[in-house]
Q: What sequence folds into this?
């Protein structure tokens, strides 16, 4: 019996482990290579068989904040059933689509996965309703952003390792998240993003456009017939019927979700191939010189159709009376907790009373509340304020979204 590995293939049972550099030989020249990593704030020796971005991915998955995503609202809260996405399942769908795109483009999949699993880790309870309420409560203290809070969690609040505070992630992962914060705060050009970070941004939008369609129809907030008036959905339905015949109902809804993802991913990859071709013919420039001119995105046609779908979802789903009612209760709950804890800081956990010495009482209360799952927030609210207090004055009115 021949025990030699097939010609041209490495011996998988050889005497040494494959190095990260060897694994990354398949990456495109414009990818982010592990060997180029700027390292970590607190230097650590290399791991014997995991690359730096693999370790980041693992640290994120093992963090408490990541686990808590399972109890945090994406768009639809627990009161509406158990079919819809949570913040965790959204995150994993983003990671899955982002990895697919990164693999097709020969970018660094480990970095993309770490960025994707990290991108929503700073969301407070109750989704954007919670974020808006905390932002208003902290308006005089710099506001609240889930993108910034992700960095606070990763650099300060997570406590798992004896040698350093936070997760001590690679600077590339922190930079990718910082770019999201800067872009959304409109204080810094997004053009600095690594290609891997840009892929995650695209995958995030592709993912929520598809799954919010699915969840909204399943929950009965809108009908498929209404959504078939939206050009991108109609195109997806046409593709689904061309592939599967004259399907309807649940089968059509599921098939449209698949086609929505396929349409958008295919378009983004076509667009990326055209944009990246410039880089392949311009390799005399360093990558850092070349990257700022490269923006991944969608074709004009798909970008416009996505905008119409997102407008439809905003008007008819995110502002649906059933969601607005749940949103109002959730925001009042957070506001009343914020008011009570800032006025009675002795009721904060010791850890956050200590933290207040560095960041102030308001910020520390905000951080405490932002780290909670929806259910834990409900329980603490009941403990602090009891039943029947969901319409307290709080810190001011909020605009629905
Ligand atoms: Mg997201």
A:
């Amino acid at each position: 019996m021949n025990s030699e590995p097939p010609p041209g293939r490495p011996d998988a049972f050889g005497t040494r482990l494959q190095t990260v550099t060897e694994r990354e030989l398949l990456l495109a020249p414009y990818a982010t290579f592990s060997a180029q990593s700027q390292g970590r704030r607190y230097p650590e020796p290399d791991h014997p068989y995991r690359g730096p971005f693999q370790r980041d991915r693992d640290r994120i998955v093992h963090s408490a904040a990541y686990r808590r995503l399972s109890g945090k609202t994406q768009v639809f809260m627990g009161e509406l059933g158990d079919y819809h996405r949570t913040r965790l399942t959204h995150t994993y769908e983003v990671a899955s689509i982002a990895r697919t795109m990164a693999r097709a483009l020969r970018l660094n999949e480990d970095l993309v996965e770490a960025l994707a699993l990290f991108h929503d880790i700073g969301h407070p309870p109750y989704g954007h309703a919670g974020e808006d309420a905390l932002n208003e409560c902290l308006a005089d203290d710099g506001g609240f952003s889930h993108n910034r809070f992700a960095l606070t969690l990763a650099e300060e609040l997570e406590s798992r390792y004896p040698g350093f505070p936070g997760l001590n992630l690679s600077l590339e992962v922190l930079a990718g998240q910082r770019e999201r914060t800067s872009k959304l705060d409109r204080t810094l050009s997004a053009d600095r993003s690594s290609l891997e970070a840009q892929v995650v941004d695209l995958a995030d939008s592709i993912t929520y456009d598809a799954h919010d369609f699915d969840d909204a129809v399943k929950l009965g907030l809108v009908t498929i017939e209404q959504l078939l008036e939206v050009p991108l959905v109609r195109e997806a339905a046409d593709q689904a019927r061309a592939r599967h015949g004259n399907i309807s109902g649940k089968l059509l809804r599921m098939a449209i979700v698949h086609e929505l993802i396929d349409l958008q991913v295919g378009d983004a990859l076509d667009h990326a191939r055209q944009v990246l071709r410039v880089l392949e013919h311009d390799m005399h420039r360093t990558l850092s010189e070349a990257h700022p001119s490269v923006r991944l995105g969608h074709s004009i046609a798909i970008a416009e159709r996505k905008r119409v779908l997102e407008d439809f979802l905003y008007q008819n789903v995110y502002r649906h009376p059933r969601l607005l009612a749940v949103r109002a209760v959730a925001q009042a709950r957070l506001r009343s907790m914020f008011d009570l804890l800032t006025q009675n800081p002795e009721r904060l956990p010791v850890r956050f009373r200590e933290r207040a010495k560095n960041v102030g009482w308001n910020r520390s209360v905000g951080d405490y509340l932002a780290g909670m799952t929806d259910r834990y927030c409900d329980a603490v609210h009941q403990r602090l304020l009891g039943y029947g207090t969901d319409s307290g004055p709080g810190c001011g009115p909020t605009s629905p979204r």
